[in-house]
Prior knowledge:
Elements: E1 2-5, H1 13-27, E2 32-35, H2 42-50, E3 54-56, E4 67-70, H3 77-86, E5 89-92, H4 96-110, E6 115-118, H5 124-130, E7 137-140, H6 143-146, E8 156-159, H7 165-176, E9 184-185, H8 192-204, E10 209-213, H9 219-229, E11 235-238, E12 254-259, H10 265-286
Parallel strand pairs: 1-12, 2-3, 2-4, 4-5, 6-7, 6-8, 8-9, 10-11, 10-12
Helix pairs in contact: 4-5, 8-9
Iron/sulfur cluster (SF4) binds at residues 12-15, 72, 95, 97-98, 161-162, 190, 192, 261.
Amino acid sequence: MEVLLADEFGFCFGVERAVEMVEDALQEGATVRSLGALIHNTQEMKRLEAEGVRTINAPEEASQDVTAVIRAHGVTPMVQLELESRAARVIDATCPFVTKVQKLAERAAAQGRDVVVAGNPDHPEMIGVVGYAPNNTYVVRDATEVANLPQLHAPIVLSQTTIKLQTFQEVAEAVRAKADAEPQVINTICSATRDRQDAARALAGHVDAFYIIGGRHSSNSVKLLAVCKEQCEKSFLVETADEINPADLENVERVGVTAGASTPNWLINQVVERLRELGREKEAVVA
Ligand code: SF4
């Protein structure tokens, strides 16, 4: 049985960078506290907890003996300042793609312009961005919500890093009708999610079964499952190697593997190794 990995899988750049920054701090002997869960993967969180990393829910929970970490989603400047005043040191692991959205919003607002961001207003990334331009920023889920906005002055249109391109384009179009000048439209969608989906789609038609490794609550992993199922009926979302049911591999000659953007390599390796082991067992039975 052949095990084939998709061309793009696992940790995105921003998550890998955040985990590496935490690892570096741990190596220096720091007591690390992450403001909010560093990563949406239960197994990786447990591994980090075993190394001493704890999650705090508010800056007030930090103290002068800890190194506090701002995760990849970023936070508002107010929260960052508060954290800096409480903790011994702050590691800013905001993904540079998110920082770009924050800075664009801040600069446009400083020029007195309105900022429209296509995204989910309740998502931590969007809460952070609004904090950089609190008086001028409108976060809209889709184009229909633009109708409820007041007239917009020289607006800039941006996107949450993980939204669909079509939603962003529709929002930009709707803003045009509400603006007193041609809007500046800057696509700030990050390609990590789309790249993983494209790679899974390219492989799904060539395998008999597909394993997607990721948290059941991880939206990008659930989306990967849906993408694989379009072409490969036997597609399974698993969190760990233990969840593979050998019976699902009957009559399977080629298995595809991919993983969500929060799935660490060590977990992926365990699943791949288990699949190879099951493949060897099948061959032994046939022989
Ligand atoms: S999905 Fe993209 S924007 Fe978000 S953390 Fe990963 S690389 Fe950064």
